[in-house]
Amino acid sequence: MSTDYYKVLGVERDAEAREIKKAYRRLAMKYHPDQNDGDKAAEEKFKEISEAYSILGDADKRAQYDRFGTVGDNPFAGGGNPFAGGGNPFAGGVPFGGVNDVFVDILNDLFGARRGGQGRSRRGSDLRYELKMTLEEVATGITREIEIPKIETCPVCSGSGAQPGTRPTTCPDCNGAGQIRVQQGFFSMARTCGRCSGTGEIIENPCRRCEGRGRVTSKENLEVEVPAGVAEGQRLRWTGKGEPGYGGGPPGDLYVVVALSEHPFFERQEQNVTCRIPISFAQAALGAEVEVPTLTGKVRMKVPPGTQSGKVFRLRKKGLPDVDGRGAGDQLVTIVVETPTNLSARQEALLREFAEISGDDVQPERRGFLDRMKEFFS
């Protein structure tokens, strides 16, 4: 046995067929000539792994190889390597069975994206529009008219790109196919025609209005409806409102992205909203009923006697609705007790009386800095 095909593919001798296929696919992608332009070592490695898979990828040939160490009808045996001389081994049919299926997959991986953009018909691009909203608008939902850029067929040339009275001509390089087949190593591949950029046509007298593009830019007013409860950064899609397609292709979509404006009073926490309400010392101590703004209007909230600064009250269902209609969040109100300033003589006297009754020492500071320093270090 001159070559250990299992070792070439890096699999065990008892490997299942799917493992062998996976190993070949990985190695073929790595050593494919198009991925290693001009690398002779990679080209030889690609031939070697293709030879290995032509045997191990075929159940009958693998059984014969496992038993005798060779395969009688191996196209590579005896120096009959179909890759020799640069000929395409796949011309007129693939000579080694299961390699074909995997090889087609690899070609799709390597060139599929490029082929996708070469046709004359393709989908239009998507558009993105950032919609600024306030929390009040999120709470109720809105219907708003927005202006979006619109690309439409040129009215002068009717989309041909050619000056009226003339017409595009067939590209002489690709004969209208939009692709040119080229030989690279032992593969024949299709590439986008460089002269016509894949359109298959040449415009010798471009339209002055659209400069040969066949399309012009304008503006369109579109009414969009945004449901209540949408989140920051949420995308809403309007199908078919993007740029028109090329060559009869479908239009793209419009994505409206929600951006929340900063609110001077509320903050959002998912479906809840938070705010801070200042109250006086007397209100906190004696209790009170205070007015609290919400996203949908003002409400009265009871503050019980003895409320401490930082206490959080919950107003049920006063937050933001769920965008899917499953209830609403709450409003969380944090109490901030304000310390009075600029007291009048009467107010100060009453507070000192209160402090005296409470046993609090609030006598004004009479000792000097040096006296305090002596006390500290004594």
Shape: elongated
| Rg | 39 Å
- The overall pLDDT, averaged over residues, is 77
The stretches of 5 or more residues where confidence is low (pLDDT under 50) are 73-98, 111-119
Tell me the number of strands.
15
Strand order of the largest sheet: 10-11-15-14
Helix/sheet category = alpha+beta
What's the name of the CATH homologous superfamily of the domain at 5-116? DnaJ domain
**H-E string:** HHHHHEHEEEEEEEEEEHEEEEHH
Q: What's the architecture of the domain at 5-116 in CATH terms?
A: Orthogonal Bundle
Number of helices: 9
Largest sheet: 4 strands, mixed
Do you know the CATH topology of the domain at 5-116? Helix Hairpins
Give the percentage of residues in beta strands: 25-35%
Question: Could you characterize what this model shows?
Answer:
This protein has 378 residues and is α+β, with helices and mostly antiparallel strands. Among the domains are: 5-116, DnaJ domain (Helix Hairpins), CATH 1.10.287; 267-338, Urease metallochaperone UreE, N-terminal domain (HSP40/DNAj peptide-binding domain, Sandwich); 345-377, no CATH class. It is built from nine helices and 15 strands. The chain has helices at 5-9, 17-31, 40-56, 59-68, 99-116, 135-140, 281-286, 345-358, 369-377, and strands at residues 127-133, 142-153, 169-170, 179-184, 187-192, 201-202, 215-226, 235-238, 254-260, 267-269, 272-280, 288-294, 297-303, 312-315, 331-338. The protein has a four-stranded mixed beta sheet with strand order 10-11-15-14. A hairpin with a 2-residue loop joins strand 10 and strand 11 (272-280). Helix 2 packs antiparallel against helix 3 (40-56) and helix 2 packs across helix 5. The longest helix is centred in the N-terminal third of the chain and has 18 residues, at 99-116. It is elongated and about 110 Å long. The relative contact order is 0.09. Residues 73-98 and 111-119 have low confidence and may be disordered.
